Amino acid sequence: MSMLRRLKEYLEENNVRYVKIRHSPAYTAQEIAASIHVPGKELAKTVIVKVDDGYAMAVLPATRRINLDLLKEVMDKREIRLANEKEFKDVFPDCEVGAMPPFGDLYNIPVYVAKALTEDQEITFNAGTT
Predict the structure, then answer these.
(1) What is the per-residue pLDDT across 35-94, written as a single tens digit (0 to 9) for each?
(2) How far is residue 121's CA from residue 129's CA, in Å, rounded to a whole number?
(3) For residue 130, is it within any domain?
(4) Per the structure, how many domains does the chain have?
(5) Residue 107 domain flag
(6) What is the largest CA-CA distance in the chain?
């Protein structure tokens, strides 16, 4: 099953309303936000981190940088670092690198979401392609 179909089913099973938006190719979350005319604080970017026992997904507004020290404390892990693309590309075989949707349930990966994203009525996120 394709990523888009799995994501669509996941959203529908969880009663999440959504609108599909296409954008021109972009390489940063801020570029995506600008191309679709969405404030960067409402675009959720997915950052993959390597932790003691595998991977985790950190989801934060495009305008923010990840705070690894805080995430390490929240996760109660000994070691944490940004994962490189070579390491995690096989974890997301149906996604373009850098375009993973912010739903770790689809990949059996724990997800940590920045509180700032919970304050918005709507958010925008990648759905597997850039």
Answers:
(1) 667 777 877 889 999 998 899 999 999 889 999 999 999 998 889 999 998 888 888 888
(2) 24
(3) no
(4) 1
(5) yes
(6) 40
